[in-house]
Amino acid sequence: MLFDDLLFTVGQRFRRPEPRRRVRDFVRGLLAPLPRKNCWTIAEHAGDAGPDGMQDLLTRVKWDDVAVRADVREFICEQFGDTEAVLVIDETGDLKKGRHTVGVQRQYSGTAGKIENCQLAVHLVYATEVVHAMLDAALYLPKSWCDDPQRRAEAGVPEQVRFATKPQLASRMIETAVTAGLPCRWVAGDEAYGADPRLAAQLRQLQLGYVLAVACSHQVTTSLGVYRVDALATGLPASAWQRVSAGRGAKGHRYYDWSFTALPAHRDQHGGHHWLLIRRNRTTGELAFYRCWSPEPVPLHTLVTVAGRRWKIEESFQAAKTGLGLDQHQNRRWTSWHRWTTLAILAHAFLAAATAHRDRPDPAGLIPLTVNELRHLFNVLIIEPTRRHTDPLLWSVRRRRHQARAMKSHYARQALIEP
Question: By three-state DSSP, how is residue 361 classified?
Fold first, then answer.
């Protein structure tokens, strides 16, 4: 069974049988339809007498989350590796209260669409034509955190961690994946990554083609001089636009008007071919711009396909947050955040691989299995019939005792500072 094979591989990273069992139970808890996912609810679902074992798995037990993510990468490579795959990079934010959770500060969150008190992480997704899976993640540590030794120590941030921009974090993850032999050909990302010339230079050095979004104010060099990309778009004739689908959607093909212009003046020591790709919404006329590069010439529809595949990471975020508890963690420290995220990535990789395995054609009238539908079936058919059950009254007592202690502690702390 695919789930057992993956957990057996990951289990070799643990020396003792207890943490191996807890990892299996933890991932099964992430896959289960629990209303809220944390160490307490996952432990109760697993049939444990208390949450201590699950909490220890994220904090005290010795295991390397980087090595586990390497196992997941190898699993993805074996199950649905594709030389034409796209590595998609993007960040997502988790809204948080207070200031003690590692990486939290007031900063712009694309998830909220405004500046909020939140925690940001850069994610890497592996997207083929038929399936996509979360591959890696890196927590963004703002400069205010990096320059504060006390906060670093309280959150357990390793000594060697230094400030890195989001494109730098993405660059490290991409280089790690490519160096490890993961088959891929393209990288896609939004404006935050298209605006960084160092990331683009490294991708060219790795001989990875890219389609990276840029702002309308981005400037390119043509044979006639330097122009803003929005100024170039206004001068294009009607014949320069082609109607091409950016991919299949639930309600049909996602058709846009596209135009691409070669940028020979941008050639450098890495060779290859540069383009400016422009997308125009057929209804509103809204424009989007992309800087593109490939080691060899490619047609327009190839660049459009890569640009359209960037949205796979949004689907991954949605599936991981709504179904796997990616953003429901209650972990304040560096190590526990990475371990929770790693196990959520592992769970998503399993679901993605299972949907990629369709040995027989789908019956007429049915769409292929989705990640969400497979998660539901896996829970109903596999997890529920075999899982242990604990006395719900004992868990009720434990929760209320824990809440009473917390309340008493809060009142005692308040009494020290209030008259």
Answer: coil
Residue 252: Cβ within 10 Å count: 8
Task: Please tell me the total count of domains within the chain.
Answer: 1
Question: How many angstroms separate the CA atoms of 62 and 15, rounded?
Answer: 9
Residue span of the structural domain in which 253 resides: 191-299
Instruction: Evaluate whether residue 251 is within a structural domain.
Output: yes
Residue 120 to residues 91, 142, 176, 287: CA-CA distances in angstroms?
A: 7, 9, 21, 27
Q: pTM higher than 0.70, yes or no?
A: yes
Question: What CA–CA distance (Å, rounded) separates 211 from 303?
Answer: 7
258 within domain boundaries = yes
Q: Is 156 helix (H, G, I), strand (E, B) or coil?
A: coil
Residue 233 lies in a domain: yes
Q: Is residue 252 part of a domain?
A: yes
Helices (H), 81-220: 143-146, 149-155, 166-179, 191-194, 197-205
What does the longest C-alpha to C-alpha distance in the chain come to? 77
Query: pLDDT by residue for the chain (419 residues), tens digit each?
Result: 899 999 999 999 998 999 999 999 999 999 999 999 999 999 999 999 899 999 999 999 999 999 999 999 999 999 999 999 999 999 998 888 888 899 999 998 877 788 999 999 999 999 999 899 999 999 999 999 999 999 999 999 999 999 999 999 999 999 999 999 999 999 999 999 999 999 999 999 999 999 999 999 999 988 778 889 999 999 889 999 999 999 887 778 899 999 999 998 777 778 899 999 999 999 999 999 999 999 999 999 999 999 999 999 999 999 999 999 999 888 899 999 999 999 999 999 999 999 886 555 566 677 778 888 889 889 888 888 888 888 777 878 878 888 888 888 888 888 888 76
Take residue 34 and report the two structure tokens written for it: 């629990």
